[in-house]
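Quality-control log, excerpt.
Job 1 of 2 completed; input and output follow.
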Amino acid sequence: MKIVFWGTPEYAVPTLESLFTNGHEIAAVITNPDKRRSRGSNKVESPVKHKALELGLNVITTDRVKNNPDLIKELNRLKADVFIVVAFGQILPEQVLKIPKMGSWNGHASLLPKLRGAGPIQWSIINGEKITGVCIMQMQKGLDTGPILIKRTTDINLNDNALDLSNRLSHINSELFLIAIKLLEKLKINNQSELPVILNLTDQDSINQKPTYARMISKTDFVINWDHEAINIHRKIMGLFPNAFTIYNGKRVKIKDSEPLVPEFKEELSLIAKKLLAKYNYNSGNIGTIIGVEKGIGIIVKAKNGSLLIKQAQVEGKATMTGDSMIQQLKPILGGLINKEENRSV
């Protein structure tokens, strides 16, 4: 089967590599243009472009799919059987979706119709979902509204961060697309409009679940507010890994690993966190203050309805630290206030 693959970030790489190594013809790889990491630095190619060039594949970069006649002409010339889209980063217009006879298919990292949109992995953790997964769906004009071919679930553990979950889901995505391609290869159709009936696709409207949306993450989302519940702060830290931050002693501190010292979640805590939960009074201390410094372990900060064990942090301009190194670098003082907001621009 002749494939045009659309993708940009690291998340999409396992699927591209899997399709290639399993002998499928990749007519072209379409990805977003190279970007500068910072002012004055050299441009960096997307992870998908890097892998595609490594595999010797034809790469097309574009920052505009809509109203791009040259791209439409090239896509028609390629005569691909199917388009496969994994975290491409742009919305494909209906004119593009209709080109391949076997349809355009997207691997979405949620259990649709839950968490349609740009940030399903992050928001599944932030929202405290217990389970998520990947859906392979036929793409249509709406935002992640297409009918579903296959799906697979995975649990979200209390201490999963966005990178952990992303890695797990990206490999599920690659496995499901191999299954999807095998199903499509068996078909003999004249037009992609026949696909929903022939493949018995599941219409999302038939699923007893109200659609929800995972909006794009904004810069203000990264700021930790210590007035919030301890479990929700923990979920933000894990869901926005590695960028959720607070301010201490006038410096931005990214918190990269934590555990919520909350009785309700005792069974999911590490052995060390369970011991600290027993040691620190659940309601002691003022919100947003340091109530404990545990040698070799970390710092405990009081939040609403519990406390948070900070296990790993990074002070701006410094390397990531854990345990005693983190304590030495932050120099925490019992009763010291952790700012809930930053005075500088975010």
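Job 2 of 2 completed; input and output follow.
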Amino acid sequence: MNKASCRRTTRPTAGPAYSTRDPGDLQLGVQALLIKEAGLVPTLPVGYVHRVRTGTAPDLDIGSFNQSALVLISGDVGEFHYDSNFVLNEQTADPVRRAQYGQTLSVTHDLFSEALHDRLEITGELWHFTQPLVTTTIHGSPNQRSNAVGTLWTLGYAVRPNLILDVGFDHGLTSTSTAWQTFGGFTYLIPHRLWPHRTPPALPAGPLKHVHRR
């Protein structure tokens, strides 16, 4: 999700500051697994995301999208885990519609694995997104071909196998990227299936007999 719910504090030129609460976008998507990791062969899922409702929270520098298609590649090399995303988005600024392309590469490694029993990990990421609807730099200078490039660093701590807390920062590297961002969040995996397994009917006890019918 490119927009998150946020609280903004605004200080006008005259008068006291005031706060507003802004909802983020609502997006729904599906994902399918094409290849499951086996040895050096990486996991290969594909996904599609569609924006159902547009929020009023301010965009990040990569903007919002109406719909998005993505290919994800992840795997392990020794003690390092890597993830790479290839993204194709549709961005709009009525009546203009533009394609946006993005690539990310992140590497994760455990910290103090023996003392903390593999609970703490650090991730470094390098990302790039085109900005087809951005025509000026953060300083207001005109810019015809804009690209947001940045590096992201995060620490993740596993409270439980299905609950991960994370905190980190992102630093933009180009004149059209947000200079600094900080964030925190959590990932929770539902411990039980929402629907039961479908088990095949039990076979009758005893030897099976094949009956010929004419």
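Post-run check on job 2. Residues 1-5, 7-13, 210-214 have pLDDT under 50 and may be disordered.
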